Every structure is written in C-alpha cells, then in structure tokens.
Amino acid sequence: MKIWAHRGCSQKYPENTLVAFSKAIELSKITGIELDIQMTKDGEIVVIHDERVDRTTDAIGYVRDYTYLQLRTFRIETGDTRKEKIPSIVEVLDLIQDRMKEGLLLNIELKNNIVAYAGMEDKILNLVAQRGLQDNVIYSSFYTKSLYKIREFSPSTSIGVLDTRVSDCFYKCRGAFGEDISQVALHPYWQGIDLTKRQLHRFAVRVWFTGHLYPEKPTGKKLDLDVLEQQGITDVFLNEPEEYQLY
After folding, report:
1. Residue-averaged pLDDT of the chain
2. Contact 56, 97 (CB under 8 A)
3. Which of 46, 89, 151, 178 sits in a 20 to 30 Å window from 128, CA-based?
4. Are 233 and 205 in contact (CB under 8 A)?
5. What does the chain look like in DSSP terms, one character per residue?
6. What is the rounded CA–CA span in Å between residue 24 and residue 194?
7. Residue 49 catalytic?
8. Distance CA 223, CA 185 (A)
9. Assessment of whether the complete model's pTM goes beyond 0.90
C-alpha cells in the first residue's frame, strides 16, 4: 500500500501550508504529497483547497477575487505562536523539489470543477516542466474536461480521475480517453469501491476520505491497509501519514 500525505501532514498542522509540507518531506518512505490549487485575481497559482478563504484563514471571500499580494496578508493559525500564509505553488515546489528529484511524487488537484480558472492547465504544466519535475507529478480533478486539456498539452502526463464511486471514475476515464488509459489512475472515495479487484487490476486506485479538514480529532486507530488492498486499492491519501512508521 502506498501512502500519501494529504494536504501535507494535515492532522497536526494546517492543511496545504509550508509547515505541513515540510513535515511531510521528513517522511523518508512516503510515496507522495497531495495538494490543491486555485488561482488568484491576477493569475497566480496558490495552494488552498477551498474556493473561499473563510475556513482556513482570518479573512473571507473567494480566492479568485483577491490578488496574490492581498492573499499574502491573510493569516492561518497554527495553534502556537507561528502564523502561516497561503503559499504559492512556486513556494511549495521550492520546498519539495529536492525530495521530488529523489523520487517523491506530487499529486496536484486542480480545483476547477466549481470555478473554471482560465489557463490553469497550461500554466501549471509549464511551471512544473521548467523545473524538470514533470515525471514526478500527477494531476487530478473532478472536472474531466480539465484532465483532457492536460493530456492535450502533454500526452504522457500522469492524471487521476476523481469521483465518489470507483465505477464513476472508471467510466469517466473511458468516456474521455477511450482505450488510451496509460498513465491514468482512479481516485474514488474509499467506501466507493463498487468494482471488483479484477476489474481494477490495470489501474492505480488512490482513495480519499471524508472529514479531512483541519483541525479535526485524531482518528485514534489505523486503517487496516490489508483489507483495503484486497479491494484493489493501491494508494491512500492520509492526514496522518506519520502514524504509519514512515520515518
């Protein structure tokens, strides 16, 4: 079973922040890090899950309605004396690219199924390619048209089709890419596995969980990864990857 840090180490630290990512890259056996991107009013790519800043910062409003410099004035509480800011994707890549060059993967979720950010696909592909990191990045989205654009711009790029049920991921994948499913993964909800392991054997199946919002109570127990693997699940996005002895 492959383990990913979901929005960084987001159980103990604020999600999608530099401190959460810095803790994740300390995990030597981790497969990868997952994060989310939105775009500012002036076209900068920033790392934040929600379309609005209300939940995670001391401000209110849509990400798209603020310039990058305005977003930088917002604060994210960490629970101690430190205060984090919404990072740009450039800052995150600066932080983790050395680990990526050692083999760490990065899953970038394009949060464009609600707000259609013009040019997001081309812009993120170029930023990643400029650093030579394209072989270590997977792009995922609930918006299949966006993934189709990614593959149009870069046919060999790895993508992950997001939906609740794995069957919906599967058929969205078939509808968009036909038989060309090389480098295509399925990213369903962990309790949405409604196909057999045999049907899923050609795919990486990376599952996500509900309730993954900072702050939240620790789960108090570990997932039985063997049970998940028997269902055909290959990867898990976890808030608490450090609890799985990955140092």
Report:
1. 92
2. no
3. 178
4. yes
5. -EEEEETTTTTTS-TTSHHHHHHHTT-TT--EEEEEEEE-TTS-EEE-SSSBSTTTSSS-SBGGGS-HHHHTT--EE-SSS-EE-PPBHHHHHHHHHHHHHTT-EEEEEE--SSS--TTHHHHHHHHHHHTT-GGGEEEEES-HHHHHHHHHH-TT-EEEEE-SSHHHHHHHHHHHHTT--TTEEEE-BTT---S-TTTTTTS-BEEB-TT--SS----SS---HHHHHHTT--EEEES-GGGG---
6. 31
7. yes
8. 22
9. yes
Query: Per residue in 123-139, pLDDT tens?
Result: 999 999 999 999 999 99
For the question of residue 187 being annotated catalytic, the response is no
Rounded to whole angstroms, how far apart are CA atoms 134 and 144? 20
CA distances from 235 to 79, 94, 103, 140, 209 (A): 30, 25, 16, 14, 12
